[in-house]
């Protein structure tokens, strides 16, 4: 009859103690990544900007700093734009885009835009998205989503925007294609 090797004896005698110690360590140093699966959300909405220009009723932006530079370099405008699910600025209002835009280009019109999308109505009411990026005088562009709260906790993604053909001199409409990844908050 063969004698068990020392390694085999060690394995059977010591392994339970090692495994027990591993469970103790798990209690002391818990796995920090007990994460929920990340969700993906796509939304198609409309931004309504009533510019701070003479003759524009119901303006939803105001010039805070004005510049005499040739293209307005350094001008800062605070905005509270409207977010809707349809082309009308008065129907299906789901939130606001609150923040500012700053003319950051010295040789071209290039607005640095920072705002929080605050959802007030609809399925995302009470949630926010943090957004920033450059808005140039082009028919389209893109902003970064850098955070969020509630339904959009830990959000990241992009917002592609296009100047709408339905825009007027008093309602500059942008179509927004919002694409965000977010992690739902878990109960403690």
From TrEMBL:
<dbReference type="Pfam" id="PF03018">
    <property type="entry name" value="Dirigent"/>
</dbReference>
<dbReference type="GO" id="GO:0009699">
    <property type="term" value="P:phenylpropanoid biosynthetic process"/>
</dbReference>
<comment type="similarity">
    <text>Belongs to the plant dirigent protein family.</text>
</comment>
<keyword id="KW-0964">Secreted</keyword>
<keyword id="KW-0732">Signal</keyword>
<comment type="function">
    <text>Dirigent proteins impart stereoselectivity on the phenoxy radical-coupling reaction, yielding optically active lignans from two molecules of coniferyl alcohol in the biosynthesis of lignans, flavonolignans, and alkaloids and thus plays a central role in plant secondary metabolism.</text>
</comment>
<keyword id="KW-0052">Apoplast</keyword>
<feature type="signal peptide">
    <location>
        <begin position="1"/>
        <end position="22"/>
    </location>
</feature>
<protein>
    <recommendedName>
        <fullName>Dirigent protein</fullName>
    </recommendedName>
</protein>
<dbReference type="InterPro" id="IPR004265">
    <property type="entry name" value="Dirigent"/>
</dbReference>
<comment type="subunit">
    <text>Homodimer.</text>
</comment>
<dbReference type="GO" id="GO:0048046">
    <property type="term" value="C:apoplast"/>
</dbReference>
<dbReference type="InterPro" id="IPR044859">
    <property type="entry name" value="Allene_oxi_cyc_Dirigent"/>
</dbReference>
